[in-house]
Structure formats: C-alpha cells, structure tokens
Write a structure and sequence with these properties.
By secondary structure, the chain is an alpha+beta fold. The protein has 5 helices and 7 strands; from the N terminus they run ααββααβββββα. It has 2 domains: about 35-90 and about 145-165, Orthogonal Bundle (Cytochrome Bc1 Complex, Chain D, domain 2); about 95-140, SH3 type barrels (Roll). The longest helix is centred in the N-terminal third of the chain and has 13 residues, at about 10-20. The two termini are about 35 Å apart.
C-alpha cells in the first residue's frame, strides 16, 4: 500500500485512522463455552508454564493478557489444535547443532555476529558461540507448543471462550 504522508494533513490522518478503527465495531457473536471453566482448563494444563498472563507465568510463548483483543475465536481454536499452523511472529523454532554433536532446539532470543541465544522448551537460555556450531536449521513448520486436540470438545470450547475474553485491564 502506498504511503499517504504527503497527501494527508495530520487532522486528515487522525480522521482516517478513526474511521478505519470504527469499521471493526460489530457486536461480537456469543461463543460456545464457559470462560470461567476455561480459566480452570488453562491452569490445569499448565499453560502458565509457557505463557505470561497478567504478569504471571513464563515467557516461552506469546504473552496472553490481551490475546482476545488481538485474535478471534477461530484463530485461537486453530492455535490450540494445530499450533504449528498459527506461528506468531518472533516464535520461530531453530535447531542448533554443535561441532561436538550436541543439539539445542528452541526459540532464538538474540543473535549477533558471534553468538546465538536459544531458549529451549524448559525455559533455559543457551548461549552458543557460532564458531562452535556445525549447523543452525530454522524449522519453519515447527512449534514448541503442544496440540490440545486431546481436550474434550467442551473443554476446548471453554478454553477458547476464556482466551477470547482476555482483553487486558479495563
């Protein structure tokens, strides 16, 4: 999309932004599921071991405090059932193999000319010197998040309703 910086005044830009934001203001359809029970399903499945919610949990996966404002129920259901299909930005999985044959698989948290820092599924950050690596494979179709297709239909509906209700502080 071309930029309109020279064609719009500041007032026109703010008015255009307000109009575009108003386009998404449709009444949300009620979701099947019980968000209160979904919170219990979230806790029972240890989701806080990988996700931060309201400042609590771990940062292996995306922060979820406002996920309901950012993603709709169909996306959330797909992300739970087939997480490898719904890759959030910044959560690409890499597999680093050292020249000694050790393998570290996880999410890259930092990379520079000399080092690669990878957080594994346990949350441990590994500092790997690039000169000691024989290969670094980016696994485009991989994820560290397990599938929750094993949940009952009711529990899955409840978990999706709970996640969809997360819209941050009000």
């Amino acid at each position: 999309m071309p930029g309109f910086t020279s064609a719009l005044t500041e007032t026109m830009a703010w008015q255009t932004a307000a109009y575009v934001r108003s386009l998404g203001r449709a009444r949300a359809r009620p979701l099947p599921g019980n968000p209160q029970h979904g919170a219990a399903v979230y806790d029972a499945n240890g989701c806080g071991g990988c996700h931060i919610l309201r400042g609590r949990g771990n940062a292996l996966g995306p922060e979820l405090t406002t996920i309901g404002a950012l993603r709709g129920a169909p996306y959330l259901r797909d992300a739970l059932v087939k997480p490898e299909a719904a890759h959030p930005p910044g959560y690409l999985v890499v597999k680093a193999t050292t020249t000694a044959g050790n393998v570290v698989r996880g999410i890259p948290v930092n990379e520079d000319v000399f080092y690669l820092h990878v957080r594994d599924a346990r949350g441990t950050v590994h500092t790997l010197q690039k000169s000691d690596l024989s290969a670094v494979d980016r696994e485009l179709e991989a994820t560290l998040m397990p599938s929750y297709a094993r949940l009952s239909v009711g529990d899955l509906d409840d978990l999706v309703a709970y996640l969809a209700s997360l819209r941050g502080a009000r």
